[in-house]
Design a protein that fits this description.
Helix content is 58%, strand content 9%. The protein is an alpha/beta fold. It folds into 3 domains: 156 residues, 3-Layer(aba) Sandwich (Rossmann fold), CATH 3.40.50; 62 residues, Helicase, Ruva Protein, domain 3 (Orthogonal Bundle); 125 residues, Zinc Finger, Delta Prime, domain 3. Strand 5 and strand 6 form a beta hairpin. It is globular and about 70 Å long. The chain starts with 5 loop residues before the first helix and ends with a helix.
């Protein structure tokens, strides 16, 4: 069966059409978990205690798994097995003396002949699978060793990817989720919440719980967001890069102060700033050659659209020569942090000052 999306899967489950093998992955972890629950519910109903076996991928015993697959179901139509976070790149916690290819072959052998009364689900919630996007078909292809297991599932069962949603899609989901809890939020504020959480669906879900508990039946306003939601550090990095591009000294140092509070490792702060300016440099060079956002995303294997969009936006106000100067300043600052005993915050403030003094 070809790869399907979440909507198609739900339609199949509602019709009672179940496969014997599922592989569910993607950056949208809550959707991965949600679809897993849908499948389990369709297979065993309320009999999870007797009919569902939960296994951790890194501790699989393949002979035990094979026997479990052959077992007859108890008090349910299906014998259901959930295998969480099997990573073909590192299938064992301790890989000393072991080869990933050999272990993966044993797994494929164990699930090669799944009987009609057994349903096996692989889901990935604890690590990121590397994918490459075909921007013509909008389809993602797995690039690492996990592709072999995913391809096997696609050929012999069902393969489902749960990609990160756009801010507009997330805004609608946020508004619906807030409404279901009895509170209100405008679409503009919902988009702001998505941006503050960097489209991280797990972070958004946690923030919604907190905001609804505070707001009750009232509206979640922009002031409430600013007072109660911690803006993710990546968003602050973008804010800093934008401030340097616009020569906005006040906003630049406010962003730096936020970063210094969030990070104990000042080297990590500098690395994040450097990565942002490298993104902008790539975007500026791409624009000069007539390339688009999708070209940069594909060429440099970016996963999230907003990082490339922000880089294109912020770099439009900076010449390539100025970006090179800023990257040179960041390189020199990194060397100074590594070899100087001076106060780290002072060094970073001097770095920002030098970048603000560069000209197009």
């Amino acid at each position: 069966m070809p790869q399907i999306d979440a909507r198609t899967l739900k339609a199949q489950l509602n019709k009672g059409e179940l496969s014997n093998l599922y592989y569910i992955f993607g950056q949208n972890i809550p959707d991965v978990e949600k679809l897993t629950k849908y499948i389990i519910k369709a297979a065993v109903g309320d009999n999870e205690e007797f009919a569902l076996n939960r296994l951790e991928g890194r501790y699989l015993d393949f002979s035990e798994l094979y026997d479990m697959i052959q077992m007859m179901p108890m008090m349910s139509e299906y014998n259901c097995i959930l295998i969480n976070d099997y990573n073909c790149e590192k299938p064992r916690e301790n890989m000393a003396g072991l080869k990933a290819e050999d272990i993966n072959k044993k797994l494929i052998e164990a699930i090669k002949d799944i009987p009609p009364h057994t349903l096996v689900i692989f889901n990935v919630t604890g690590f990121e699978i590397a994918v490459k996007t075909d921007f013509r078909t909008k389809k993602n292809t797995i690039k690492d060793r996990n592709k072999k297991l995913a391809d096997f599932a696609e050929k012999n069962g069902v393969l489902i990817e749960c990609p990160v949603k756009t801010e507009s899609e997330l805004a609608k989901d946020i508004a619906a989720s807030v409404s279901a809890r009895g509170s209100l939020i405008s679409l503009d504020n919902a988009r702001e919440l998505a941006e503050m959480c960097q489209n991280d669906t797990l972070a958004i879900r946690n923030e919604i719980d907190k905001l609804c508990s505070y707001a009750g039946k009232n509206e979640i306003t922009r002031d409430i967001l600013n007072n109660f939601v911690h803006r993710q550090s990546d968003a602050t990095i973008f804010k800093l890069a934008d401030a340097v591009a616009a020569l906005n000294k006040r906003m630049a140092f406010e962003a730096l102060d936020e970063l210094m509070q969030d990070k104990n490792n000042r080297g990590a702060v500098l690395a994040s700033i450097s990565n942002s300016f490298i993104d902008m440099y790539r975007a500026a060079c791409a624009r000069k050659k007539g390339k688009q956002i999708n070209d940069v995303k594909e060429d440099f294997s970016y996963i999230l659209d907003f990082k490339v969009k922000n880089a294109f936006r912020d770099s439009s106000r900076m010449s390539i020569k100025r970006l090179r100067k800023c990257i040179t300043i960041l390189r020199d600052t990194n060397m100074l942090l590594n070899f100087s005993r001076s106060d780290e915050k002072t060094i970073l403030e001097q770095c920002i000052t030098k970048m603000l003094m560069t000209k197009n």
